[in-house]
Amino acid sequence: MSDITKQALSELVENIKSKKLSSSEVTKAFVERSEKSKELNVYITEDYTNALNKAKKFDEKPNLDLKLPGIPMAVKDLFCTKDLRTTAGSKILNNFVPTYESTVTQNIWNEGAILMGKLNCDEFAMGSSNETSFFGNVQNPIDKNLVPGGSSGGSSSAVAAQLTPITIGTDTGGSIRQPASFTGTVGLKPTYGSCSRYGIVAFASSLDQAGPMAQNVKDCALLQEVISTYDEKDSTSIDFKRNEYSKELTKDIKGKKIGIPKEYRVDGMPKEIEDLWKKGIEYAKDCGAEIIDISLPHTNYALPTYYIVAPAEASSNLARYDGVKYGFRAEGENLIDMYEKTRSEGFGAEVQRRIMIGTYVLSSGYYDAYYLKAQKVRKLIKNDFDDAYKKVDAILTPSTPSSAFKIGEKTNDPVSMYLNDIFTVPVNLAGLPGISIPAGHDAKGYPLGLQIIGKAFDEQNILNIAYAMEEKINFKNNITDWWIK
Amino acid sequence: MSKNKSEYLINRHDNQYEVVIGLEVHAQVTSQSKLFSTSATKFGAEPNTQVSLVDAAFPGMLPVINEYCVKQAIKTGIGLKAKINKRSVFDRKNYFYADLPQGYQISQFKDPIVGEGKVILDMPDGQKEVGIERLHLEQDAGKSIHDLDPKNTFVDLNRSGVALMEIVSKPDLRSPDEVNAYIKKLRSIMRYLGTCDGNMQEGSLRADVNVSVRKKGSKEFGTRCEIKNVNSIKFMQMAIEYEANRQVDLIEDGRTIDQETRLFDTKKNETRSMRSKEDAHDYRYFPDPDLLPLEVSDDFIENLKLEIPELPDEKKKRFIEKFKLSPYEANILVSDIETSNYFENVIKKSDVKLATNWIIGELFAALNEKNLEITESPISAGNLSKLINLIKDGTISGKIAKTVFEQMMEGDKDPQKIVEEKGLKQESDPKALEALIDKVIDDNRDKATEYKSGKVKLFGFFVGQVMKVSGGKANPQLVNEILKKKL
Question: What is the C-alpha separation between A354 and A77, in angstroms, rounded?
């Protein structure tokens, strides 16, 4: 079968289960395509030989009852993987090899999947274009020199380019949904507490959440079902009844009330985004949903709130990278000198910027004015959603205020870069699930995404809405394999 | 209760200064594992053998609260008669140091697990109440070792993440003696509770000492200095004396005291400036987002109350009321739980008054001489109890008992056996004693005549002679009685 890599996850699973394909054949196909796709720079660390060996082993004694039987996949390099280098896209962890496995990846291997390698991302997941990675830019397969979004840019690019059938990313302020939107793929940020943070390199602990990225909603649902487990090793993990999301998936969303928040009509929003949103509303209506206008009055404050809370937590979370115990160390005259040199050379500019912002907003004399106030506003933003959910079952918005931009276009303008997250950060601040699905193209032919935001723990509902709309939208990605010579 | 008798004042020229002291005691929670990880906490293990990925702050590692440590902290709070906060919050205290792997210490800043409480001190001139401001849980740091290599510092993370209780007193202490009594009382309460072993040599109990001075009668507090990390009561007392005098000298010279952190140099017996207020760290405290607020239910607290043993203050009261001990005796016997247990075991089967005297007198002196703790006593409570019964029933005299006691100290021998083997049994047969006394009177006819003619002081001579002849074994009471008749 020559078109193995064109198959979506559910097809591959079916073909392996019915023994039409072996894990080795599938793994080999994705490895070969990955090797031909080096120009995209999606991999930080490749583990092809091990992957092929594991596939061979799987085929010798295949367990076809598993949910991901012998399926090869690459994961964002923010997940610690036992015995395989984990860098978080940073020089400071350039040589770091964990002796342990993150809970989320362990859940995946437990269901039979096979690790192919670690995918590029913004350094410590801080970025919206994958340009802050120490390991270089990632190309968007949609068009050369186009960013794949970020921070899960390697992940989105790899799924769109079909170098991995599915993948996982992490989303602190939009890092799954925005790159999914930029690459015409599907990305789900689950409810905070749904997926364990154990073994994921932390960016902002109260916002970070792992989630699935795939070519379609059904694959996304299946992967979510695998990765979401209650974990005692993460004190913020929540013990709630998790659905078998893929099994319970339905296109019947008749009568579902979908809210349209007026505050998301931001100033200067391109007309094509406005049009996409309108189209989305029509699709939702076509599916039988009821559209209701709602208000999320504190939306305007979400971005500034996010850019206080996230850097504050990051400044503390990244203190452990000090050259003492592991990772990169620059020699110094004394301890302080070693710290300064290690962290100046080990962290890139964006990470340093956020550490400084975070340190500033937590410092005595500024704490109340910034951090504490931001926490209060965060509560108001959450209250907005709570109020809205008294009237609606889900909320529909654009995923991003624009389509993918050119590499280098926004690197010198951090604020304009931060504005990318305007529709996604409120969801993280409120701890809610949100999914981005591809819904159309802009004038340049670049994909655009719609975001469906759900109630806490109501992943099933937004997956269902996404599943129903996906059929109506019938999106096709225009990928020409331009990078394969 | 005369308050002034033991007042500690510093006199300079015509001024009298009062010393105001508050303590921040760091007490290591007795627990098999650390506050947020499952690593062991055993003292004296090989460096870096009790370190988990969490303690060493590996990427993606997360803290999970140890419920046992929470229970220990709440029990301590109950022992300090303190308010237990049903909701408390763990904060991050951020600073860089090589032995602080996370780059922050998880502590409790705004919302500690235990609020205000009190400790009662028994001072020579009466009782004194010392207020407790709060008790909070926090992680210990690792240990930097600077003297193993001329160029490098070594780091041992065994202690990293071990649970500490920081117990903050109000500025209620007024003298080095009160500090001594306070630390001992705190230690005693925690040892009763089994929440901290109080071992200062192993660093299980350390304190930061806040000292200020003010003119006697003044209501305002003076500027305080904090003396960091003093690990023995003696050093605390020395540091306070030095520091208080230093501050008085500054005031008398018309200079001001800078609020600062100081170190106590145990070799030179002086405190030295470590950092000024301006150089103080900005710890950037904020709630740890890896941990949810700690919430405990009323039931949880009530169940812990059921586990609280009788504490020293209550035990003292019971000893005084039930056993008619003096407050002084009761204080000594309840000061630590092992002593009180020993005492209660001895008196299970023997006379309380005699037991009290023998424990406080002979036993403490003998243990002291051999530098032993009560738990290491060569004489078991059971055998001491037997010895006391031998005295009580007249089998041996008090004097012989001391000889027997000395032999018991050599190894835990049954006093009954010692008495039998060495033939130390008291002679209480009146006939035998009469014969003995007749012989003594006979041998000392002249003295007997003198006695009869009114020299009554000679009675003691005759008693002594009888005891001597009997080899100390004659029952002194019977000897007295018979002698009186015969003479």
Answer: 20
pLDDT of the residue at B1: 34
Mean residue pLDDT of chain A comes to 97
* Higher-scoring residue by pLDDT: A155, B281: A155
Per-residue model confidence as pLDDT tens digits over A213-227 = 999 999 999 999 999
How many structural domains is chain A composed of? 1
Alpha-carbon dihedral angle through residues A425, A428, A434, A435, given to the nearest 10 degrees:
60
The model's confidence at residue B483, banded by pLDDT at 50, 70 and 90, is confident
What's the CA gap between B208 and B451, in Å, rounded? 70
A2 occurs within a structural domain: no
Which tokens sit at A72?
């090869």
Q: Which residues of B touch A235 (CB under 8 A)?
A: 62-65, 290-292
Chain A environment of B65 (Cβ under 8 Å):
235
Closest by CA position to A215, among listed A131, A259, A155: A155
Contact assignment for B290 to A312 by CB distance below 8 Å: no
- A135 with A153: CB under 8 angstroms? no
Residue A481 lies in a domain: no
Instruction: Answer yes or no: is A478 within a domain.
Output: no
A3 CA to chain B: closest CA distance, Å?
38
| CATH number, position A186 | 3.90.1300.10
pLDDT score, position B5: 56
Residues of A with active-site annotation: 76, 151, 175
- CA–CA separation, A135 vs A122, rounded Å? 9
pLDDT of A14 > 90? The answer is yes
Give the pLDDT score at B480: 84
Task: State the pTM of this model.
Answer: 0.92
Separation between Cα atoms, residue B487 and residue B465, nearest integer Å: 14
What is the pLDDT of chain B when averaged over all its residues? 92
Beta bridge partners of A102: none
What distance in Å separates the CA atoms of residue A307 and residue A301, rounded to the nearest whole number? 10
Contacts of A88 in chain B (CB under 8 A): 59
For the cut 70, the answer to whether the pLDDT of residue A173 exceeds it is yes
Question: Which of B37, B58, B294 would you mutate first to test chain A, the one with the most A CBs within 10 A?
Answer: B58
Chosen from A316, A334, A336, A360 to mutate, greatest number of chain B CBs within 10 A = A316
Best mutation target, A75, A206, A322, to test chain B (most B CBs within 10 A): A322
A2 pLDDT higher than 70: no
> Quick check: A374 contacting B, CB < 8 Å?
no
| Sign of torsion over alpha carbons B155, B156, B161, B163 | negative
Range of the structural domain that residue A20 is part of: 12-297+383-473
List pLDDT tens digits, range B155-206. 999 999 999 999 999 999 999 999 999 999 999 999 999 999 999 999 999 9
User: What would the two tokens of residue B337 be?
Assistant: 């739980």
Interface of B with A in 261-290 (CB under 8 A): 282, 284-286, 289-290
Nearest CA in chain A to B157: A325
Q: How far is B272 from chain A (nearest CA, A)?
A: 23
**B56 reaches A (C-beta below 8 A):** yes
Q: pLDDT tier at A1 (50, 70, 90 boundaries)?
A: very low
Contact assignment for B289 to A313 by CB distance below 8 Å: yes
Instruction: Answer whether residue B6 shows pLDDT above 70.
Output: no
Name, in order, each residue with C-beta under 8 angstroms of A61's C-beta and a sequence gap of 6 or more.
none
Residue A340 within any structural domain of the chain: no
Contact A324 B98 (CB under 8 A): yes
Can you point out the beta strands (E) in A244-366? 257-261, 290-294
- Interface predicted TM-score (ipTM): 0.96
B153 contacts chain A (CB < 8 A)? yes
Is B462 in CB contact (< 8 Å) with chain A? no
**How far off is chain A from B113, nearest CA to CA, in Å?**
18
List, in order of start, the domains of chain B with CATH numbers.
Answer: 18-305 (no CATH), 310-422 (no CATH), 430-486 (1.10.10.410)
